[in-house]
Amino acid sequence: MIAKIVAERLKSQDEVALSKGISSKSISTEGISKETVSSEGIFEDMDTAIEAAYQAQRTLFEKSLEFRKKITNAIKAELMLHVEELAMLAVKESGMGNVKDKIIKNTVAIEKTPSVEDLMSGVFTGDDGLTLLEYSPFGVIGAIAPSTNPSETVICNSIGMIAAGNAVVFCPHPGSYKTSNLAIKYINKAIKSVGGPANLVVTMLKPSMAAVETMMHHPLINMLCATGGPSVVKAVLESGKKAIGAGAGNPPVLVDETADIEKAARDIINGCSFDNNLPCIAEKEAIVVDEICDYLIFNMKQNGAYELTDKVLIQKLETLVFKSEGVLNREFVGKDAKYILDKIDISVGDEIKAIIMEADKDHPFVVEELMMPILPIVRVKDASEGIDLACKLEHGLRHTAMCHSKNIDVLTEMAHRIQTTIFVKNGPSYAGIGVGGEGFTTFTIAGPTGEGLTSAKSFTRRRRCVLVGGFNIK
Ligand code: NAD
């Protein structure tokens, strides 16, 4: 399914038209209705929501692993019915991203988030007997979700956290909470359909910072998991509770002279325009060896890039997308290239997916995480200088980086030195979360706290059970 969608994306130059085609289906984009309150995990008050999740977790705790698998299978089956609806609501509500790519993101969250199979027990046997290493739930987890992946994060976290035996209290972003809440409503419907406990996944009817504060310090919350920018990661780390922090990135992509330049150009433009550059993993700046830079730019333009060369226009774009130094104008986050170009009086067709320009290594487009399909290109003399610069521009966030090269030494050195959680070789950034690349997916990439690509196991406590002097059959 995902392979099919990716193949479509790679050959498509008409994604905007495609995404418009989807809108022919009549769906409700009003989010949740009043009657879903409390019956489908949605509460008016945070204390009541947490209490309900606590009770649900007690019930789940007594059930088998097979039953958890049944629940996560039901969630996957139910949510597959709603990917278009969730994608469309997210774009409408947040004003960011595009429907076609949000369908891919929701689909991959459903199909490739691991369930209980992630909880592989460990064992030690020897002269002194047998020791089991097993994964137990934390209890109730407080999860904070971003506006950039409002349903994907809810789907992915819910599957992993429930598979691990937990209940979840979500605090979605105020700018996209209806989408998150709609996903939560469908998740509870799915859980109910297989006889699972009500309110295993809960949230608030309307988000507020007061509710987030209550959740972060509530005694029944055993773990926090924040997916978002630096501020929310800092907040959970200061809470005093066990916290997973999945924060911002500024992923560089390096291209050297040995790379397949045509493919590199296509992959980079596809990656940096995916959901209009909202994903934290998306290419945010290209670092290119001088020798092949002109040819790469030529090929980027063959694949939907519009190049700005006029310094006045580049300055105009900078003034547009930054409110002040280092402060983004949120109006342009997640907007498409055509919309952004139109604001600087450049009219282009729907085939334009990204805006590129050559830039100095200290330019704000290079240094800041824009989350817009604007890709600055910095020339370097060779791969060695490129790796140095990539490490600097990643800011030590340990998030994501890409490299296009056929030189194994360059690929190895960059992967080793940059120490990102995800490192993609010769592919678009989204291959790193399982879209056209091997491996499971996650929408919570915890660089700062080190869990990396979170999965069910990340939401457990590792426990040991020791039997002395028995069950050793060597
Ligand atoms: P954001 O930081 O504005 O909001 C994220 C969530 O945190 C929201 O629910 C928000 O209400 C809450 N929040 C913000 N400040 C808070 C505070 N001080 N205390 C408590 N809660 C707070 O992020 P966004 O704009 O929705 O998402 C984009 C950011 O998230 C980007 O920086 C992106 O790189 C990052 N992100 C990271 C990952 C990852 O897995 N590492 C995934 C998605 C997004």
From TrEMBL:
CDD domains to which the protein is assigned, alphabetical: ALDH_EutE
Pfam families: Aldedh
Superkingdom of the source species: Bacteria
UniProt keyword Phosphoprotein present: no
Gene3D superfamilies assigned to the protein according to its UniProt record, in alphabetical order: Aldehyde Dehydrogenase, Chain A, domain 1 (3.40.605.10), Aldehyde Dehydrogenase, Chain A, domain 2 (3.40.309.10)
Stored InterPro entries: Acetald_propionald_DH-rel, Ald_DH/histidinol_DH, Ald_DH_C, Ald_DH_N, Aldehyde_DH_dom
Domain annotation Aldehyde dehydrogenase: ranges: 44-301
UniProt KW keywords: NAD, Oxidoreductase
Keyword Signal: no
UniProt-recorded name of the protein: Aldehyde dehydrogenase EutE
